[in-house]
């Protein structure tokens, strides 16, 4: 598995040679360094941890963790990826592992929508608007006589969005090695200036 962390900058559009409009998302790549290695023998699973970006303040556990790699290393984001691929602590991950027109996956945290009702959150139908009905956007009955409680997972009003989301099979339109920027076809999860993980199981 190959992966790299980047920051979602904005969404725009470009035009190809035939004049067809292509919606794209601009991802700015940051310095990606392997900060930790986990093995099957020691930790029970194989994984490596990526550090990216720049952070100003750290607590002592974070400083102790990063001191093993580099005292001057101050990543803003740490992301662990389970894989059997061998890395060494301190290795740099670059965009060279990907290529244009390759299909990749993007993982990020979706936009938070706050507290939402059942109509917006679960696409419930609206109630009747006429004849004095007061059940316009209400959820209706939520249970029966037995078992006299609300079953777990019941579709009700609540916190919407701000969840980890993975969008698969996104095409890489363009890679700019100079500015370390990537154009991806379509939309990716999250608002502007949030971190996203670009990854793929295809090693070729």
Number of helices: 3
CATH topology of the largest domain: Elongation Factor Tu (Ef-tu), domain 3
Strand order of the largest sheet: 1-2-11-10-7-12
The tally of beta strands, per DSSP, is 12
Low-pLDDT windows of residues: none
Strand content: 35-45%
Distance linking N and C termini? 10 Å
Helix content: under 10%
Shape: globular
Average pLDDT figure: 89
Question: How is the topology of this model organized?
Answer:
Blueprint: E1 2-15, E2 21-29, E3 32-38, H1 40-43, E4 47-52, H2 60-67, E5 77-82, E6 92-93, E7 103-109, E8 112-116, H3 118-122, E9 158-161, E10 164-176, E11 181-185, E12 195-200
Antiparallel strand pairs: 1-2, 1-12, 2-11, 3-4, 3-6, 4-5, 7-10, 7-12, 8-9, 10-11
Question: Keywords for this structure?
Answer:
single chain; 204 residues; mainly beta; Elongation Factor Tu (Ef-tu), domain 3; 2 domains; four-stranded antiparallel sheet; 3 helices; 12 strands; globular
Please characterize this protein's 3D structure:
By secondary structure, this protein is mainly beta. The protein folds into 2 domains: 2-111 and 162-200, Elongation Factor Tu (Ef-tu), domain 3; 119-154, no CATH class. Helices cover 8% and strands 41% of the residues. The chain has 3 helices and 12 strands, in the order βββαβαββββαββββ. The strands form 3 sheets. It has a 6-stranded antiparallel beta barrel. The protein is globular and about 70 Å long. The termini are close together. 15% of the residues are buried.
Compact summary:
The protein has 204 residues and is mainly β. The protein contains 3 helices and 12 strands, in the order E-E-E-H-E-H-E-E-E-E-H-E-E-E-E.
């Amino acid at each position: 598995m190959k992966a790299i962390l980047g920051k979602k900058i904005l969404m725009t559009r470009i035009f190809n040679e035939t004049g067809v409009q292509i919606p794209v998302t601009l991802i700015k790549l940051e310095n990606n360094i392997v900060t930790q290695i986990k093995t099957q023998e020691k930790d029970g699973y194989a994984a490596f941890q990526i550090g990216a970006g720049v952070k100003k303040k750290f607590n002592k556990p974070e400083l102790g963790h990063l001191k093993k790699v580099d005292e001057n290393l101050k990543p803003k984001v740490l992301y662990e990826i389970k894989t059997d691929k061998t890395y060494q602590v301190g290795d740099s991950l670059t965009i060279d592992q990907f290529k244009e027109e390759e299909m990749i996956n993007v993982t990020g945290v979706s936009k938070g929508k706050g507290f939402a009702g059942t109509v917006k959150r679960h696409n419930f139908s609206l109630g009747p608007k006429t004849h004095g009905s007061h059940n316009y956007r209400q959820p209706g009955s939520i249970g029966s006589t037995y078992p006299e409680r609300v079953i777990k997972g019941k579709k009700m009003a609540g916190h919407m969005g701000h969840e980890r989301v993975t969008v698969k099979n996104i095409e890489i339109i363009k890679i700019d090695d100079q500015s370390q920027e990537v154009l991806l076809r379509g939309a990716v999860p999250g608002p502007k200036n949030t971190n996203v993980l670009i990854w793929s199981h295809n090693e070729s």
